[in-house]
Amino acid sequence: MTQPAPVRRESGHRSALLTALHLADRAVPVLPLRAGKIPFGNCPNCRGNACGGRPNMKAPGPCRCPRVCHAWAAATTDPTLIASPAWAGAWRQAVCVGYHPGGVGLTIVDLDHADAMAWARDTLPPTRTVPTTRGAHWLYQGTMRSVNGVRDGVDIKSSMSYARWLGPGTGTMTALPDVVRALIVRTPATVRPANVTVPAPVGNGECPHRTSTYLDRGIAMAEQRITEARSAVHATVYRTFLAVLSGHGRCGCLTDTHIGRLFTAAQAKGETARHCTDAWTNARTALGM
Predict the structure, then answer these.
(1) What is the mean pLDDT of the chain?
(2) 211-262 per-position pLDDT tens digit
(3) Which helix (H) or strand (E) holds 184?
(4) In the 8-state DSSP scheme, what is residue 247?
(5) Helices and strands, number each (H, E), in the chain
(6) How far is CA 183 from CA 65, 72, 124, 213, in A?
(7) What is the rounded distance in angstroms from the CA atom of residue 259 to the CA atom of residue 244?
(8) Which of 36, 45, 221, 282: CA 20 to 30 A from 8?
(9) pTM
(10) Beta 163-164 vs 174-175: how paired, if at all?
């Protein structure tokens, strides 16, 4: 009796490469991920955005560099590039395949634990699901902005994001519903976060800002600067806080209301209360307050 030929087992990186090529053939933009589902770091040619991409993952389109260096922006459907020598080192280190859901017209609701799963079953329309280690990916047809932490254990991965490929999933794909889109709509904060103290006055003279429009005009300009930021929001918030404290922090004219207005403007741009508090504290430290 003829024995069956032995089954050839592919190495881990070879298997990942073959999976990537299979997905790319079906128009799914892919990229290799190393341990921890982390994309590969910027190559020397791309550091400092030299190639025109944006390492902070806020670029409007894919990186043109042939190497795997810009996370979601590196995802491609080009089989020649995927199997090229420029990507060979990345595949040798890869532990899994990532893909850009927004690039294939999908939104993933990433559910990280049992409570998040229960919430999804009670709240979201049924759709195709993919099991994960701790929960599941719920896949919807349509794209939107990606935001992590829209609620406890729930992330949105779509445009300008990447996810681990875990298989096609089961169930019928549903069009992206309004209830998912509404998850990223932020309500501007109206209460100043705790643990922020107003600097004590310095000197014995009366503060001139209390009896003039100088302070209010400065706060209004600071709010506008934050609101109009189109990039580098973290840095803009910090620099704005630094400017306000430099002009008004030592005379004691800043009140909870003034600080609350600045924090509200920052949180409306997507900053968390913790980021605001840290930026305020760092600005005070930098000024020796």
Answers:
(1) 80
(2) 556 677 788 888 888 887 766 777 888 888 888 888 777 776 777 788 888 8
(3) none
(4) H
(5) 9, 9
(6) 34, 22, 11, 39
(7) 10
(8) 36
(9) 0.61
(10) unpaired
> Which amino acid is residue 51, in one-letter code?
C
Name the DSSP letter for residue 11: P
C-alpha pair distances (Å), 110 with each of 40, 45, 163, 198: 22, 33, 9, 40
Please give the helix or strand (H or E) that residue 217 lies within, else none.
helix 214-227
For residue 102, give the nearest of 28, 180, 17, 26 by alpha carbon: 28
pLDDT at 122 over 90: yes
Q: How far apart are CA 89 and CA 6, in angstroms?
A: 29
The model's pLDDT over 52-96, given as tens digits with 9 standing for 90+, comes to 554 444 444 677 778 888 888 889 999 999 999 989 989 999 999
Buried b (16+ CB within 10 A) or exposed e, 228-266: ebeeebbebbbbbbbebbebbbbbbbbeeebbbbbbbbb
Classify residue 182 by its DSSP letter. Answer: G
CB neighbour class for 278 (10 Å; exposed up to 12, middle 13-18, buried from 19): middle
pLDDT at 112: 93
Query: How far apart, in whole angstroms, are the C-alpha atoms of residue 183 and residue 119?
Result: 13
Confidence of residue 25 (pLDDT cuts 50, 70, 90): very high
Q: HSE on the CB side for 8, CA within 13 Å?
A: 4
Helix (H, G, I), strand (E, B) or coil at 160: strand
**Confidence check: pLDDT of 286 > 60:** yes
